[in-house]
Amino acid sequence: MNGIHDMGGIHGMGPIQSERNEPVFHEAWEGRAFALSMAVDGDWPYGADRYQIELIPPEEYLRQSYYEKWVTSLVELMIKAGMVTSAEIASGKAIRPRTKAGHVLTAAEVPSMVARGYPANRNVPATPHSRAGQQVRARNMNPVGHTRLPRYTRSKIGTIVRDYGVFEFPDSSAKGLGEKPQHLYSVRFAARELWGEQASRYDSVYVDLWDDYLEPA
Amino acid sequence: MTTTRRDFLAAAVTAAGAAVTPELAHAQEHDHDHGHDHQVVPSDPALRVKALESLLVEKGLVDRAALDALIDTYEHKVGPRNGARVVARAWSDSAYKQRLLSSPDAAIAELGYGGLQGEHMVVVENTPMVHNLVVCTLCSCYPWPVLGLPPVWYKSAAYRSRAVIDPRGVLREFGLELGDGVEVRVWDSTAELRYLVLPERPAATEKMSEEELAALVTRDSMVGVGKVTLQTQGARA
User: Could you say which of A122, A131, A195, B8 has the lowest number of CB atoms within 10 Å?
Assistant: First the structure.
C-alpha cells in the first residue's frame, strides 16, 4: 500500500537524533512489548504483522513510537485470529477461555527460537526471470496490500547485481494467498536514475526485489 | 482499528491502573524534579502493555518467564559486541574475511551468531573509495544477531526518509564528510536479507590483538554511519 511507512525520499522529517550510550529499551514497557510480540504464537502469515503496522493511520503512525506500533499491530492480529476479543482488550480481563490450542513459548525454548529464526528462503524450483548484469525496470504497480516494492523505485531502471535464490513472496503470503516462492535479486539503481541531477553520479541504492516486481528494461 | 486507543486506555486504567501506579511512579522519578508533590500520570503505552500482558497471561497465551528470557537475551546477550567480534576477526584473518564476504551466514555462525532477523546475511566492505550505508525505508529491518535491536535513530522517520535520497547529508549529520569521488552505496533492506558493513581497519593497528580491535568497533560503523578510528570506543552491549 502507498502508506506513510514507505518513507524513502520524503522531505521534512527533521534532523536525525542519535543518542549516546542508548539503552536497548528506554522504558520497561518497551521490553515487555517487544517480548510479547516475539512470544505470541499467532500463526499469522509472513508479512501480516508488517502489513498490520502499515494499516495504522498516518497521523498515528508518525506519533506512535516503534514499540507502540508493535503493540497496536499485535492486538489487531490477535483479534483477527480470534485469540482475544475487542471486549477483552478493552476490559483487560479474560472473558472467554483460550479457544486455540496453540503452542506457548517457554523460557527454555527462547535460545533455540532466537538461534533458528524464521528463514524465508525456499528450497523449491522456480524459474528466474532475470539474471545478473541484466537491466530491469521496477514495475509501475500500486497494490493496496503489503508490498516490499518502495515507491521511489517504481518505473525506474536498475541492474541485477545478484540472484539471492528463491524466497517466499510477502505480497502473496501477507494476504493469506500462499507463499508464491520466486527469485529475489539485489538490484542496483544509480542515484541519478532515482533522484535526478541533484544526486551524486557516483552513488547508488541497492534494493532487494522479487521477480514479480520486475520487467525487462 | 476496532478499539480506539482512547476507549482502550479508559478501560485499562480501570483494570490495571491501581496495580501499576506505584511501579510507574518509581520509574518516572528519574525524569522529574522533586521537592513538590505531584500526581503521577502513568504513560499511556506502559499501562496498555501492562494490561495486555496480564490479559495474555490470564488466557494462557504467553508465559511470563519466556518474556523475561527474551528481554534478557536482547539486553545482555545479543548486541553490537557480536558484530564487533566478527569485524575484528575479519581484520585479523584474511581467510575468514573472504569467507565472511562470500558465505556470510556460515562465517558469522563460526563465531556462534545467527538466527532471528539475521537468517540471511550480506556483508558489504568499505574501502577508501566505496562507502556502504544500510537503511530500511519501509520498516526498520536490522541484523539483530550481530547488532542487537536497532537504535531509535535507525527507526526514525528522519533517517528512513533521507538515507536513500541524501546519504551524504545524512553522513555529514553523523560527522562523516566523504570526498566527492567516493562511491556511496546505500542498501535498502526491503526483503529478508540483512546487511552488515565491514568498516575499514584504522591505520596503526597492526600490532593490536583481535580483542583490542573489537573494542574499537562501533555499532555506527557497522551500519555505515561512522568510521572506526583509534579514538572510537566500541559498542558496549
Answer: A131
User: Considering CB atoms only, which of B15, B71, B193 is closest to A31?
Assistant: B71
CA distance B190 to chain A (A): 6
Instruction: For chain A, report the end-to-end CA distance as a whole number of angstroms.
Output: 24
- ipTM of predicted complex: 0.97
pLDDT at A101 over 70: no
Q: Between B80-92 and B94-102, two packed helices, what is the crossing angle to 10 degrees? A: 120
Whether the Cβ atoms of residue B166 and residue B178 lie closer than 8 Å to each other: no
pTM confidence score:
0.90
Domain co-membership, A142 together with A202: yes
CATH of B79-223, one of 3.40.50.970, 3.30.450.40, 3.90.330.10, 3.90.70.10: 3.90.330.10
Grid-cell match 578510528, residue found: B229
Q: Which residues of B touch A9 (CB under 8 A)?
A: 161, 164-165
Among this protein's residues, is B221 annotated catalytic? no
